[in-house]
Design a protein that fits this description.
- InterPro entries: Ala_racemase, Ala_racemase/Decarboxylase_C, Ala_racemase_C, Ala_racemase_N, Ala_racemase_pyridoxalP-BS, PLP-binding_barrel.
- There is one protein chain.
- The chain has about 350 residues and is α/β, with parallel strands linked by helices.
- It has 2 domains: about 200 residues, Alanine racemase (TIM Barrel); about 90 residues, Lyase, Ornithine Decarboxylase, Chain A, domain 1.
- The chain is about 30% helix and about 20% strand.
- The strands form 4 sheets. Strands 1, 11, 14, 15, 16, 17, 18 and 19 form an 8-stranded mixed β-sheet that branches. Strands 3-4-5-6-7-8-9 form a 7-stranded parallel β-sheet.
- Strand 7, helix 7 and strand 8 form a beta-alpha-beta unit.
- Helix 1 crosses helix 3 and helix 3 packs across helix 4.
- It is elongated, with a radius of gyration of 23 Å.
- The relative contact order is 0.16.
- The structure holds pyridoxal-5'-phosphate (PLP).
- Pyridoxal-5'-phosphate binds next to helix 9.
Length: about 350
């Protein structure tokens, strides 16, 4: 028996891609970020749905993740590696025809020595201080790098989900100054950057979370439903407790359902005693502590015992659940874990 059913709406993912693409003008192409197994939803299936919706350039974090994308899409679409060319990845980059986004002098040297004919892109640091060549480094090597025709020059915004943050405009200014007149396609915007407006779009955008229905793309369609199976139901008398630490005690006669998924399935333990799951729209409070493989809920208000209860879906978005846990939608999606039965609904094309 599986721990539950994770249903991914391919039509919603495709619609989100098209809605984000529609924010940019004709001179901007919209790529798709499918790292971390497609934000936990299945990299191959996400890549295929997004390719059907029109994406031709895909981004993964590390070379290994490129394999699933190539398998799903075949040759043709470009697959970029955000982590660049790591030592030990040379064969994979070559054999799978991946495009590493080189981020340091060390990586440039490694790539040009090992794979002088293999395509590459350049990653610049414009203020996030996470990855990329510093402006001074770029100034020193641009003359050598540009004639080799990088496929892309990109950088990443640190504060794009806060539109008023002054660092957005500062990074934009720096990126412009570093890339002006190079004639190479440029990319600065992820989901948040797309929403900042056309100044940030350049020749290619690279949304991730918005494709899968998450903030900061408030206009996104929900793409994920998570139904959890009820393993057992029981009646509690006043004063009886539920779960580890006996943290919840019945104040009235109550009926408790035990569901077959827990923190090992990405239902964060910080959800203990907070929030709800839903029975056809009726909220049932989560009570007691979330355990590794189980979760307990108060179903006293229901007329009959349910077979499954919904944690994510039309009644509760990924970001609403994230708020309850003190985190972000990205972490909820990428924590979901391998035990769910994946179901793909709807059509991307
Ligand atoms: C993860 C990532 C993206 C996608 O970001 P979202 O906020 O999910 O749209 C784009 N670019 C880089 C460099 C990333 O690391």
């Amino acid at each position: 028996m599986s721990t539950g059913t994770l249903t991914i709406d391919l039509a919603a993912v495709a619609a989100n891609y098209k809605a984000l693409a529609a924010q940019s003008g004709a001179g901007t192409e919209t790529g798709a970020v499918v790292k971390a197994d497609g934000y936990g939803l299945g990299a191959g299936r996400m890549a295929r749905a997004l390719a059907q919706a029109g994406a031709r350039r895909f981004f993964v974090a590390v070379a290994e993740e490129g394999a699933a994308i190539r398998e799903a899409l075949g040759r043709g679409p470009e697959v970029y590696i955000l982590g660049g060319h790591m030592s030990g990845d040379t064969d994979m980059i070559h054999d799978l025809d991946l495009v590493p986004l080189l981020n340091s002098i060390e990586q440039l040297t490694r790539h040009f020595e090992a794979l002088p004919k293999n395509p590459f892109g350049i990653q610049l640091d414009t203020g996030m201080n996470r990855l990329g060549l510093e402006p001074a480094e770029w100034a020193a090597v641009a003359e050598i790098v540009l004639p080799k025709k990088p496929r892309l020059i990109m950088s990443h915004l640190a504060c794009a989900d806060t539109p008023d943050h002054p660092q957005n405009a500062e990074q934009l200014e720096t990126f412009r100054a570093l890339t002006q007149g190079t004639g190479i396609p440029r990319s600065l915007a992820a989901t948040g950057g797309i929403l900042l407006g056309s100044d940030y779009h350049f020749e290619l955008t690279r949304p991730g979370i918005g494709l899968y229905g998450g903030l900061p793309f408030a206009g996104a369609q929900n793409a994920v439903t998570l139904d959890l199976p009820v393993i057992q139901c029981r009646d509690l008398e006043v004063g009886e407790s539920v779960g580890y630490g006996a943290s919840w005690v019945a104040e009235k006669p109550s009926r408790i359902a035990t569901l077959g998924a827990g923190y090992a399935d990405g239902i964060l333990r910080s959800l203990s005693g907070k929030g709800h799951v839903f029975a056809e729209g009726v909220p049932c409070p989560i009570v007691g502590r979330v355990s590794m493989d189980m979760l307990t809920v108060d179903i006293t208000g229901l007329r009959r015992d349910p077979k499954t209860l919904e944690l994510l879906g039309p009644d509760q978005s990924v970001d609403q659940l994230a708020d309850l846990c003190g985190t972000i939608g990205y972490e909820i999606l990428t924590s979901l874990g391998p035990r769910y039965n994946l179901r793909y609904a709807g059509r991307a094309g």
